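Revision sheet: structure tokens.
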Amino acid sequence: VYCYKDSPGLDCPAVETMATGRPVTLREVKKQGRYFQVVTTPLKSQEGEITGVIEVLIDVTEKKKAEELMLRTEKLVSLGQMAAGIAHELNTPLGNILGYARLLQKDPTLSSKQAERVEIIAEQANRCSRIIKGLLDFARKPDYERDSATCSVADAIETAITLLEKEASKRQIDIHFQPKRLPPVRGHPREIEQVFVNIILNALQAIGNRGEVTIKAFERDNHVVVEVSDTGPGIPEDIRDRIFDPFFTTKPPGEGTGLGLSISAGTMNRLGGGIEVENSKDNGAVFKLLFPIQGGSGR
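Predicted:
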């Protein structure tokens, strides 16, 4: 009976049924990371007196996940169309700003204070440029040649680690990964490398400084499963369902656009895989990615 445990504010349905004699249906109750529909019915004696309650719990976790995926997909499609238009409109004026800033930086008559201000203009223009690139990547239509390609997950992970080696070293964060022989998965190598760059970079930013990122890859049920865990603070329960939303971020200004995880989730869903996140027992977050094996049945 879920009385004020993981669903504060909900009356216990069994107690309510005992008190009123009426059946009670709770559409959704969360318990230990899973979602249940709770239905209670009074149990009556031959005299019509209530002697107990029959309580049925229906696990609707997969249905809940499917609904969330559909909602996220619809949101991504609408936002992607809008993002593409905005990005194209901003690209030209932003390029002009950056170009003139670079020209000014070469001017030997600038004072040190002026040069510092021009450098800030160039840095901020570059940041806007990265945001626009993210918007265009986000809005990019699927390439069906890319969809028919195959990729070595181990190679993609090692490439991503190499790309982020300098960032990890600067933050004094160790990345642990033991490559192993795994079957090829669906997807273009560059695309899957970008997924791992986004996930690992997110882990580095979550840790901040001094910590570890551990990557494990193994085969299970026609999928290659990759788990990326970190020693950061973990993800608060109240925002865990929102981290794959476009532009949602808890990072300080200048660290990310809030598109990396959205792009990664969109890629995984389109390839027939999936991405999940939970907090580990030892603090930190664990991202689990499921890649369909090429030639397998997928989900």
